[in-house]
Amino acid sequence: MAKYTYSYYPGCSSQKGASSSNLMKSVQTMCEELDVELNEIPDWNCCSASIGYASGSELPRITLSARNIALSEQHNAGQTIVATCAACWLATREAAERLEHDPQLKAEADQALAEAGLKLENKTPIKHMAEVLVEDIGFDNIQAGVKKPLEGIKIAGYVGCQTNRPFGIHGESFENPVYLDKMIEAVGAESIPTYEKKVQCCGGALAFSEPEKSQEMIKGIIEAAYDNGADMIATPCPLCQANVEIYQDQINEKYNTKFNMPVVYYSQLISVAYGRSASDAALDGQLIPAKKLEEIAKK
Amino acid sequence: MSDLNKRMIEKYRNDFLKEVEANVEEGEWVKMCMQCGVCSGSCPLGKHWAHPPQEIFMMIRAGKREEVLTSDSMWMCTSCYNCIVRCPRELPITHIMHGLATYSKKLGLVPKGQPTATFAEIFWNNMMKKGRVNELKLGLSLYFKDGFGQGIKNAMANQKLGMAMMKAKRMSPAEFFGGHGIKDTTGLQKMIKKAQELEEARMKKFD
Predict the structure, then answer these.
(1) Shared domain check, B173 and B79
(2) Residue B65 Cα, gap to closest chain A Cα (Å)
(3) Cβ of A119 under 8 Å from any chain B Cβ?
(4) Of A173, A181, B83, B101, whose Cβ has the fewest other Cβ atoms within 10 Å?
(5) Taking CB atoms and an 8 Å cutoff, what residues of chain B touch A286?
(6) Angstroms from A80 CA to nearest CA on chain B
(7) pLDDT tens digit sequence for B50-98
(8) Is B203 contained in some domain?
């Protein structure tokens, strides 16, 4: 029996061959090391993210998340739902809260769920993987298992928006959360607690529909990391990771910059610090290689 | 003008605030705005809004129905939730902006070619097909939204990025032929159809 057991909602972008499959792989590695068992919610569906709202107005959108919660309650009874994607976590938690506070909406969602033969109790706590690390496992326990401290790497902790707002991690500030910095320190790297863009928006889904407006913001996020002497950026959010990493060529072209800043996940940091290989930590999923992490993984 | 739009103009006459309260997600909060402007100053894309949220709230109360519902503004929302956590009266501003955008779409009032509105629709339809997002097809649909010629241009411009994503195994050509999906697509689609019907019925209730 694993020490910690959760019902796992990986989300669309974490699937094989999808944009954050490297998050999924490194999370699995990290969870093996931390003795965390993740039981995937069978047949989970998309939460419609933060862009589905215009076509999937309130009830349809909330019903999507209600289906996932109902499936989790049916198949992984009694287990807290854990999501690794900021949007998945937010949508699921938002749906659960709104259904709890609005009996009419709940009655309608129940009717819709019945069409798929499902029943929602809505009694399941919903957590982000960062909450599992901070609240259930704790920084001391994370630090205790480190085999290869990430010495000599300076990392800008980029929390982004939706892991931080509107729910965030309990006890953290919306303007200047410090848990990611603490996590970076716990694995032996150097954090930048004053990194001024740690909660700056990267444009989210608008990086696709409004690339110019979004890339202007992304530029600021990367620039501030360089200004603070960072070797790389680390983030908990799959869309933040993709947006900040993959458009650097396009930004360089437009703004005449020379950005080549690796953007990794906290789960990759922990995997490497726990002695796992570059491949287990999904470092081969980087578009901009995180060389300093690769070197430690090779040692 | 769409039928629904005509019906709503008839029904609410000169009371746009009442219409918003009845038909827009979290719209009942609009009257609580005290015009402090923190939301407008907190928005990462604030400078691109023709009417920032604070202004939208006042315009709703002033009955500026057409100006609000045909505005490009609420489509600038990136869902960063900065306005929500900073609003001194704790208004769910992000949701109200989403709600206004959605309502405008239902009434057929979105400015033509608004890119985020187009993308939102592509995203929803993509996801509803198999219950999960097909990222490859999502990207391609976005490239080709303005026709074939522009689509090829867009695809060429992003070719290097696409190749890099495939090399990193973060994009898969296999997604073009099928790809990820859920088992109970029929159940999911029936469920969403029902939810849409119930929501529509609620809007029509006091006809």
Answers:
(1) no
(2) 19
(3) no
(4) A173
(5) 168
(6) 22
(7) 999 999 999 999 999 999 999 999 999 999 999 999 999 999 999 999 9
(8) no
